[in-house]
Structure to design on (585 residues):
């Protein structure tokens, strides 16, 4: 005989549902996340909002959800243009590191700016020694391109490149505003939003594999280069072994066409699959000291794999490389000119286009006037 | 309740005419059946109200035609993508707030409660065990954009919707960008690392998260 669903039954179900939430507790983030700033640091922590950070026991593991918005004050006498924070979870993930960078800043002396960090960690329950997450400054870039920080992640180069790109793009948008007015700038913003949408469809990943699969059908192909006008580096000849989604031992002749010594460069890749579809497949930094007018052949004894965001492999048919940035020995940086329409927008262009989408063209014009 | 239709006898003589809002609703077919009959009966005998209804219908038609023309500079693909996103959000939200109990399910018996309880225990147990062995239990983030990159045996680096995740021997380290604005994230990769560039919803700052596997 059926029994009606009464309070007792509801109670049973409530207990069962609550069991999945057992072990969840509000996290005391101060005991979990340590923010270490050196004594000479040009920024200080003003406020740390830990939001809904929680710790949840799951069987033999502890799940930590850390959400924080850190407020920093610029205590230096210069404007800050970019900050990179290094995030380590040494106990949870030996060797595992992450960084949170905020480029395109315009923070004057005494001003406060936020940096948000959202982390999730799963670690063994018995491993509970010391702080779980360490946050420290890896680098701070100032208006005059001077730099502060240990630079463990080579953030100086990245932030310098982003700042050069930001200045290039703002200069370009300002010139559009002067020559074509508000309508012209609006058209540029709309075109940028479209390019960003198109870029997402061209997304691919490059990864380095420790070992190659057994070679059965490898073929050696020459790959093309986009030799960009004004580039301090000439890419002259290149070849690579192709086997499905594997690209082996890229080999290229590199020439420094300037009278200044080079320290490093970054090569971007465009790959085309056997159906003719083109992807932007990441970039490969190359540390390459090269004297004035020097030439060398670079061989990377490695296997790279290319995949689509969904995980499907890309059967690479042809490859095209281009120099996306060059760092000289004195720390100066070269980037391609704006009119070359490279497939990936700069962080600053991304920011301005999003500002246009949310707040309209007047907000973009006001923003351009601030710099 | 009887007087949901507004009438105004002062504006146009002694005859009680429906007011303009009621006539607009009538023109748009928005009145209930009874109200429609009452107002229709009046309109069919009153030239002034009939003219007003005709004006409302013409204005509505004009508006419809205007809306069929896309404004200049409208980026249709982007709008369509946003609409799709909003529909997904709407569907998800609808699923959250939709009534769970149907008329038939309001009368559970003990047997049904027992089956439900057993199922809950099994599901919770499976979830628990999955997490403790580090085989995917943590992944509650949407996984449609995921790509697993095996860096070394037991080490994977994976880009997902709103997160980059590093897994190493059962431990996980996830850097999220769930506060990105409008899904504007642009991914980039280099051997040994994945990065994502996005605009923070609250601050409007562009932020670049990167996770390193080595």
């Amino acid at each position: 005989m059926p029994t009606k669903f009464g309070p007792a039954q509801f109670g049973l179900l409530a207990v069962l549902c609550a069991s999945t939430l057992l072990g969840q507790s509000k996290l005391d983030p101060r005991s979990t996340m340590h923010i270490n700033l050196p004594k000479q640091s040009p920024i200080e922590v003003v406020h740390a909002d830990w939001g809904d950070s929680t710790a949840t026991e799951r069987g033999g593991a502890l799940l930590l959800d850390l959400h924080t918005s850190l407020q920093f004050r610029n205590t230096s006498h210069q404007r800050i243009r970019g900050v990179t924070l290094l995030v380590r979870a040494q106990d949870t993930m030996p060797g595992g590191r992450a960084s949170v960078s905020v480029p395109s800043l315009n923070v004057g002396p005494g001003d406060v700016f936020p940096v948000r960090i959202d982390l999730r960690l799963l670690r063994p329950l018995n491993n509970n020694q010391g702080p779980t997450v360490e946050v420290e400054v890896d680098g701070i870039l100032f208006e005059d391109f001077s730099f502060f920080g240990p630079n463990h992640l080579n953030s100086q180069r990245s932030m310098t490149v982003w700042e050069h790109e930001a200045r290039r793009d703002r200069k370009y948008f300002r010139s559009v505003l002067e020559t074509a007015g508000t309508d012209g700038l609006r058209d540029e913003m709309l075109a940028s939003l479209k390019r960003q949408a198109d870029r997402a469809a061209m997304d691919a990943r490059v990864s380095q594999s420790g070992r190659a699969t057994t070679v059965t059908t490898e073929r050696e192909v020459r790959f093309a280069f986009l030799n960009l006008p004004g580039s301090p580096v000439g890419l002259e000849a290149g070849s690579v072994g192709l086997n499905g989604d594997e690209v082996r031992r890229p080999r290229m002749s590199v020439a420094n066409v300037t009278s200044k010594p080079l320290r490093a460069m970054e090569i971007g890749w465009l790959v085309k699959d056997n159906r003719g579809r083109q992807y932007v497949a990441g970039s490969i930094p190359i540390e390459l000291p090269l004297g004035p007018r020097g030439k060398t052949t670079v061989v990377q004894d490695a296997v790279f794999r290319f995949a689509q965001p969904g995980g499907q492999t890309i059967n690479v048919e042809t490859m095209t490389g281009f120099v996306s940035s060059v760092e000289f020995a004195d720390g100066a940086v070269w980037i391609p000119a704006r009119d070359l329409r490279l497939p990936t927008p700069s962080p600053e262009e991304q920011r301005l286009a999003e500002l246009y989408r949310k707040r309209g063209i007047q907000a973009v014009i006001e923003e351009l006037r601030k710099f | 309740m009887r007087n949901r239709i507004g009438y105004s006898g002062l504006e146009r003589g002694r005859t009680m005419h429906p007011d303009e809002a009621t006539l607009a609703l009538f023109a748009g077919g928005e009145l209930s059946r009874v109200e429609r009959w009452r107002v229709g009966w009046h309109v069919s005998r009153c030239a002034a109200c009939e003219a007003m209804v005709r004006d409302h219908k013409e204005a509505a038609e004009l508006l419809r035609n205007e809306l069929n023309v896309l404004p200049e500079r409208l980026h249709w693909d982007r709008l369509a993508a946003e609409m799709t996103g909003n529909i997904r959000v709407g569907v998800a939200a609808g699923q959250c707030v939709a009534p769970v109990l149907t008329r038939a399910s309001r009368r559970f018996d003990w047997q049904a409660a027992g089956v439900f309880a057993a199922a809950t225990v099994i599901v919770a147990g499976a979830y628990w065990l999955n997490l403790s062995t580090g085989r995917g239990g943590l992944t509650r983030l949407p996984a449609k954009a995921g790509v697993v990159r095996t860096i070394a045996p037991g080490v994977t680096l994976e880009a997902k919707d709103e997160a980059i995740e590093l897994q190493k021997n059962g431990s996980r380290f996830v850097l999220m960008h769930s506060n990105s604005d409008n899904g504007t994230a642009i991914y980039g990769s280099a051997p040994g690392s994945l990065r994502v560039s996005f605009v923070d919803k609250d601050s409007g700052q562009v932020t670049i998260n990167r996770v390193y596997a080595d």
